[in-house]
């Protein structure tokens, strides 16, 4: 069952220098219980895409268009078209979000218990004691030792990994069907990263929820995701299931990303390979492929087609599509 | 906590001892004779001067004088003997020959006036400053914000005596909205209505400048806090906007206000000299200014010491309060 279907989502931020086109006409969907990874470098539009769906972008500063059909507990809604006050009822209940930096994402002046109880109370008309029980249950589930007494602790009394566990407990308190995890492990030690990722995986199974995992770490993606969307300059440039993407990346950018990851199963060379150049200015995007100026395989396409025409996202094999003239099927 | 408070009280006592000694040293080495001043500006009779010198203890060595002063604070002090005996019970801050009264009595008459003025102004400027600051931050760039900017500009640039005089001229003299408040201060317990009526304009005068400062401060604090990650978390939980702003944002933004307000309040308790002078209120500020003009040393020493005591004590109170407001602040 399709849980969320995003169509033609664009987000622009008007600035004195012109409109910053952070997200450009992207479409994707996610099924219930599935894990979709969104990968890309900083500024590629990963986070903005999800903040737009959550209604967390300031409507005064962001121009948003497109649709996002979501199967909520009250039926289908359009996350992008719905009244902001209405959307607030689904936020934290049907869709939850955890953020990159657990050190700053919890309110420093309220105890973690109060913050989780608040998240439960706002969507459930129950006695605060019921919410408290629920909070203790969730804290135990995410691996906080002795949750009944830790519930009165404040965020600064926890380590980074523990705080991210608290964030996860808070996000899951209302049994959401979709969890958006925005770089949940970026700010954590590598060993703690692994713990948090495996915790997310266990909880995903237990809560039967879909997860959108935003990251720039392809190592995280390989272990955690079912499908991957690669984003570049506000567009999806490749979409595939995780095995296909790693086995035969169709877009030179994806190839570049994979080559820049250190691997144990390859001979050690002195340096990791990097993609030369810079991402394009999001104010004046090039006419052709956004990646063309940095592309190492541009000579494989005749003429200067890559610099003139933007390739479409086309299907290569089953459920594997890419935005590149190289390897396009004949007639596609 | 208790050990912290008692330690801080000990330090406070030492600070006050230091302040009192410094004040005493300054006045001891000023190039005029306190005994000569006691019999009026045109008094040349050496007999009276010497008699007064003995009565007031100015004949004693400097350190002994200081010791007698400190002793008087705790056990009271008597001046002269026989029929001319004057007794100032503890806590005695000395005897003013010009006013023919114990300084403690003078201060206990003036303090309630200054206290009434300062408390009323504090309430007024907090309500206006916080209210307007929050509104300006919420509706940044809109009409309220622009209006508040103008208010801040006027409030911070108009000197208190000008505001006070203009209020007097227009509200009292030209438009007859309030009766002329000269010199007839009425204690709150005697007639609350009269009390408020007399203090109304002084409150506004004093609060005006502070309210402007606080508006500016609160506005930027709220804007800064709104950009915190934990405010985004609060929104992501699905909290209504009223709670995001009223609870999560204000709680963090207003914490520094407590420190600011505490210290500003302490500063005012030392005497709001200009406002008291313009409105002819018999408060500490006017007592001090009058004493300076008349070289009335005991009063100058006492008011200086009192102002220092208030500031030091308020600092302690603010520090303790802050530990309750911000759980990250540990008192030990």
TrEMBL record, chain A:
UniProt record, GO biological process: peptide transport
Membrane topology, as annotated: Peripheral membrane protein
UniProt xrefs under Pfam families: ABC_tran (PF00005), oligo_HPY (PF08352)
Domain ABC transporter residue range list: 4-258
Gene Ontology cellular component list: plasma membrane
InterPro entries the record matches: AAA+_ATPase, ABC_Ni/Peptide_Import, ABC_transporter-like_ATP-bd, ABC_transporter-like_CS, Oligopep_ABC_C, P-loop_NTPase
Cellular compartments annotated: Cell membrane
GO molecular function: ATP binding; ATP hydrolysis activity
SUPFAM superfamilies: P-loop containing nucleoside triphosphate hydrolases
CDD domains: ABC_NikE_OppD_transporters (cd03257)
Coiled coil, from the record: none
Keywords linked to the UniProt accession: ATP-binding, Cell membrane, Membrane, Nucleotide-binding, Transport
PANTHER family named among the record's database cross-references: DIPEPTIDE TRANSPORT ATP-BINDING PROTEIN DPPD (PTHR43297:SF2), OLIGOPEPTIDE TRANSPORT ATP-BINDING PROTEIN APPD (PTHR43297)
Protein name: Unannotated protein
Native organism: freshwater metagenome
Phylogenetic classification of the source organism: unclassified sequences, metagenomes, ecological metagenomes
From TrEMBL, chain B:
Entry-linked Pfam families: BPD_transp_1, BPD_transp_1_N
PROSITE patterns linked to this entry: ABC_TM1
InterPro entries listed in its UniProt record: BPD_transp_1_N, MetI-like, MetI-like_sf
Keywords for the protein's UniProt record, in alphabetical order: Cell membrane, Membrane, Transmembrane, Transmembrane helix, Transport
Record domain ABC transmembrane type-1: where: 111-318
Lipid bilayer topology: Multi-pass membrane protein
Subcellular location: Cell membrane
Regions crossing the membrane: 12-32, 115-137, 149-175, 195-213, 257-279, 299-325
UniProt keyword annotation of Transport present: yes
CDD domains xref list: TM_PBP2
A Gene Ontology BP annotation from the UniProt entry: transmembrane transport
One Gene Ontology CC term in the entry: plasma membrane
PANTHER family: INNER MEMBRANE ABC TRANSPORTER, OLIGOPEPTIDE TRANSPORT SYSTEM PERMEASE PROTEIN APPB
Protein name in UniProt: Unannotated protein
Organism: freshwater metagenome
